[in-house]
Design goal:
Layout: E1 2-7, H1 10-19, E2 27-32, H2 35-38, E3 42-43, H3 51-60, E4 63-68, H4 72-75, H5 78-84, E5 93-96, H6 98-105, H7 107-116, E6 124-127, H8 132-140, E7 146-150, E8 159-162, H9 165-176, E9 188-192, E10 197-205, E11 210-212, E12 217-218, E13 221-223, E14 227-230, E15 235-238, H10 245-265, E16 270-281, E17 284-291, H11 298-302, H12 310-318, E18 333-340, E19 366-370, E20 373-375, E21 381-383, E22 387-395, H13 398-410, H14 425-431
Parallel strand pairs: 1-2, 1-4, 2-3, 4-5
Antiparallel strand pairs: 5-16, 6-9, 7-8, 7-9, 10-11, 10-16, 12-15, 13-14, 15-18, 16-17, 18-22, 19-22, 20-21
Helix pairs in contact: 6-7, 8-9
Catalytic activity: 5-phospho-beta-D-ribosylamine + glycine + ATP = N(1)-(5-phospho-beta-D-ribosyl)glycinamide + ADP + phosphate + H(+)
Pathway: Purine metabolism; IMP biosynthesis via de novo pathway; N(1)-(5-phospho-D-ribosyl)glycinamide from 5-phospho-alpha-D-ribose 1-diphosphate: step 2/2
Protein name: Phosphoribosylamine--glycine ligase
Length: about 425
């Protein structure tokens, strides 16, 4: 079949890499893609939120499956657009409906959903400019630290952890009155701080059946020691040793099943991936947030561990036959190191030539996944974003996987390249 994949990041390159390995893939198109996807698929210059152009392309190119990588087109309602258009309504789209996408699109909505279905999460309050004084009072009543979250999409940067009541009050003013995160912070969720070890669980669902993919731990802050500004993600490890079988059983029973059944009960169409950000507190799982797509860079660590045909998984999801799909997982460890432009997540340069790229697959032990890259007419690959690319290493254990990831990263360079040198070190300490 011909497939259209929407997106241009490392997640989408990893998706493309797995999809083209399938015997069922005739042609893969990626819109808009990057230099990495251009090497294994056909890039098309279409915006992920230009639904009319996407619809026309699907009809003109006999597309049988559409896979949505990022959250924005989902929150804007691309699935509903397809369902409501008789010409394309028969084509499966991997992604939830607009109402389902609210689980990520609105922190307040997702917290209310969790409450309705008994999903364990942190206590919270939601505030706008109209009740900002109540927000100040709520902050004063909370133990420290205090978590403030922009209600809407903020590119993974709308979460603040405040160490004092004064800082939290000032941050609330900036978010609500000064629109620090734009429209995303017109409403702010204030949460109790959950003190534990963070990890992510990934679920594939057809709206009724589900499969739990390998878990991962990511590293959000820009600097070693988990210091500095929040980013979209600087690295990931899969599996994680503190997510043993008993913990994962609790996650499935208390979180995955109530969530999938809750969506079905509320008649919310949801065919796609569900990313559940968790906190492990003394062996008990609590939900930090839902995302309605796979994570980045977690996808680059998780997908190499999926042994079974990934396109068959997508087809089973799209045809509501996920109960017939057998998910097979590789036993090895996978680690991902994200390489970024100097200055990221602040201001950074684009257009710097990348050296040391020897193709997509380097040595069967490490893989390069492109994100913010562009392919020039002279076949040069240049930087075109903040998070430029990631290197995933695999090995029998965390130590070997990290060695392979960093070995791959050291081969690649461009002006002012930066990456964290401590990805997975906390897990290494746990297992030693």
């Amino acid at each position: 079949m011909n497939i259209l994949l929407l997106g241009s990041g490392g997640r989408e390159h990893a998706f493309a890499w797995k999809i083209v390995q399938s015997k069922n893939c005739s042609r893969l198109f990626v819109a808009p893609g990057n230099a990495g996807t251009a090497a294994i698929a056909t890039n098309v210059i279409i915006s992920v939120i230009d639904f009319e152009a996407i619809s026309n392309f699907v009809l003109d190119n006999d597309i049988a499956l559409v896979v949505v990588g990022p959250e924005e087109p989902l929150v804007r309602g691309i699935v509903d657009y397809f369902i409501s258009n008789p010409k394309i309504s028969h084509i499966p789209v991997i992604g939830p409906s607009q109402k389902g996408a609210l689980l990520e699109g609105s922190k307040d909505y997702s917290k209310m959903f969790m409450q309705r279905h008994g999903v364990p999460t942190a206590a919270y309050g939601t505030f706008t400019t109209e009740n900002i004084e109540e927000g100040f009072e709520f902050i004063q009543s909370q133990a420290l630290p205090i978590v403030l979250k922009a209600d809407g999409l903020a590119a993974g940067k709308g979460v603040l952890i405040c160490l004092s009541h004064e800082e939290a009050i000032q941050s609330l003013k900036e978010m609500l009155l000064e629109r620090k995160f734009g429209e995303a912070s017109s409403k702010v969720v204030i949460e109790e701080f959950l003190d534990g070890i963070e990890l992510s669980i990934f679920v594939a669902t057809d709206g009724k059946n589900y499969r739990i993919l390998p878990e991962a731990k990511d590293y959000k802050r820009i600097g070693d020691g988990d210091l500095g500004l929040n980013t979209g993600g600087m690295g990931a490890v899969s599996p994680v040793p503190f997510a043993d079988s008993e913990f994962l059983r609790k996650v499935e029973e208390r979180i995955v099943i109530p969530t999938v059944k809750g969506l079905e009960k509320e008649q919310i169409p949801y065919v796609g991936f569900l990313f559940i950000g968790l906190m492990n507190i003394d062996g008990e799982p609590f939900v930090i947030e839902y995302n309605v797509r796979m994570g980045d860079p977690e996808t680059q660590a998780v997908l190499p561990r999926i042994k079974s045909d990934f396109l068959d998984l997508l087809i089973a999801m799209g045809n509501q036959k996920l109960d017939e799909y057998t998910l097979e997982i590789e036993p090895f460890t996978s680690t991902t190191v994200v390489m970024v432009a100097g200055g990221y997540p602040g201001d950074y340069e684009k257009g710097n030539k990348i050296e040391g790229l020897d193709g997509h697959l380097t040595d069967n032990k490490s893989f390069i996944f492109h994100a913010g890259t562009s392919l020039e007419a002279n076949s040069e690959v240049r930087t075109n974003g903040g998070r430029v690319l990631s290197v995933t290493g695999i090995g029998e254990d965390v130590e070997e996987a990290l060695q392979n990831a960093y070995k791959g990263a050291r081969k690649i360079s461009w002006k002012d390249v930066f990456y964290r040198k401590d990805i997975g070190q906390d897990i290494l300490k746990l297992v030693k």
